[in-house]
Structures are given as structure tokens and as C-alpha cells.
Amino acid sequence: MDKKDINTADNRITQSDTQQTLSGSRTGIWKLIAQKDGKTEMIFDDVMSDMMGFDRSAPSQDNISRLTENIADEDRERFKKYIDNLINVGSDEIIYKWNHPTKGMRYIRCGGWKKSEENGTAVIRGYHQDITDIMKQ
User: Fold this and answer.
1) Are strands 91-100 and 104-118 parallel, antiparallel or unpaired?
2) Which residues of 19-44 are buried (b: 16+ CB within 10 A; e: fewer)?
3) Read out DSSP for 5-34?
4) Which of these, 8, 41, 108, 125, is most buried using a 10 Å CB contact count?
5) What is the pLDDT of residues 49-102, one digit of tens each?
6) In what order do the strands lie in the sheet with 40-44?
7) Residue closest to 106 by CA, chosen among 96, 117, 116, 92
8) CA torsion 61→85→112→70, rounded to 10°?
């Protein structure tokens, strides 16, 4: 196909392209809101909810406990340090084992960065990617 035959609208990455790419690569997006008083809320996109086997209709205030309760015992301390780094340093990445409710043990790559902190509230955004197939090669 000649370059002049390409419609310029097709040369842009759309929200649909982004969602299809994330879904196809088993990558979900999350946002963590950590308040100074210790209250936290973690919001998942649909890809992450589905990938982790979570009910999409559950309250977002329950998401952090649903996520952390299935982390493999040997990775819990590293995960806590990862969260501390996100809050105090501003960014980090981790690979950890997570027990999926129906698929069993999975390998998860997780990265995030602190977007902002205002009045003692940190807003952290990140991704979760199921890399089990890669780790088993």
C-alpha cells in the first residue's frame, strides 16, 4: 500500500487501539489513592479485573486487600517494600507470584509511579501484566 493511500485518521492510536493492545498483552491498569490518614482506594480497569479474576462490581476500597491476600507468602515482604517505594520514592517495578482464584499460581509484573501528592494524599498509577507464559519458557 502506498503511503498516500493511508487515511490520516488511521495513523493515530485510538483509545480502542490502546485497550486492545493492553488486553492482548494481558496488561491491566490501576490507580491507588493513599490518604495521609491511612485510607486507601485502588481502582482497576476491566482488563485488570478480568485478568486477576476479580468481580468488577466489588467496591474499590476492597481491591487492595483482594490483591494482597493472594500474593505468594515468599513475595509479601517484597511487595510491601514495592508499595513503600511507590509512595516514598515515586516509582518502582516488581515481579511477584500471585494465586489466581481459578488459574492457580501466576507471575505478575507490576510497575507504578506516583503522579502527585497533595494535602497528604498520594495518587499512584500503574500496570499489572500476567507474564506466566514468559516465566515458564
Assistant:
1) antiparallel
2) eeebeeebbbbbbbebeeeeebebeb
3) GS-GGGGS--HHHHHHHHHHTTEEEEEEEE
4) 108
5) 998 998 888 888 888 888 899 999 999 999 999 988 998 889 999 999 999 999
6) 40-44, 27-34, 121-130, 104-118, 91-100
7) 96
8) -50
